[in-house]
Amino acid sequence: MNECNSATINVQEFASRHFPNGALQDAYKAYMRNSGVSSRDIMRDTSLIAGKLKKRRIAFSNSMMLSIPAEEFSNIEFLPSEAGCTVLKIKGTVQTEK
Fold first, then answer.
1. Among residues of the chain, what percentage have pLDDT more than 70?
2. By three-state DSSP, how is residue 33 classified?
3. Contact assessment for residue 75 and residue 92, using Cβ atoms and an 8 Å cutoff
4. What's the mean pLDDT when you consider all of the chain?
5. How far, in Å, are 25, 78, 88, 90 from residue 75 at the CA level?
6. Is 41 in contact with 58 (CB distance < 8 Å)?
7. CA 17 to chain centre
8. b/e map of 24-55 (b: 16 or more CB within 10 Å)?
9. 3-state helix, strand, coil in the chain (%, to 5)
10. Share of the chain above pLDDT 90, in %
11. Which of these, 43, 51, 39, 46, lies nearest to 12 by C-alpha position?
12. Strand partners, 87
């Protein structure tokens, strides 16, 4: 089961998955320990945000927003582009505009 769907989360696993090097991991773990967060598994309850987790939202610097069902996010490819521009390749065709 991946971390996103797991019923629990803990500081050690989160640090090793999300921080690229040992120094950042150690700093994160120290911060969490100093903040009083348990090093044991913590039960996750995403029921209050379940609706928000169903969509991925991308915000652009010009205030444009793109909202995508989370399960379809893998159908988007971010392509190399010029400075100040974002180029997306979307698997699928335009059906409607609202």
1. 95
2. helix
3. yes
4. 87
5. 31, 10, 10, 6
6. no
7. 12
8. ebeebbeebeeeeeeeeeeeeeeeeeeeeeee
9. 40, 20, 40
10. 46
11. 39
12. 79
Short-list 69, 66, 9, CA closest to 41? 9
Q: Which of 70, 66, 69 is nearest to 86 (CA)?
A: 66
Average pLDDT on 35-57 reads 87
Q: Whose CA is closest to 54, among 44, 73, 69?
A: 69
| Residue-wise pLDDT tens digits, 85-95 | 999 999 999 99
Query: 68 in helix, strand or coil?
Result: strand
Question: How far is it, in rounded angstroms, from Cα 31 to Cα 41?
Answer: 17
Measured CA to CA, the distance from residue 17 to residue 57 in angstroms comes to 22
Strand partners, 59: 65
Which tokens is 75 given? 């159908």
Contacting residues for 24 by C-beta, under 8 A, at least 6 apart: 15
Specify which residues 75 forms β-bridges with: none
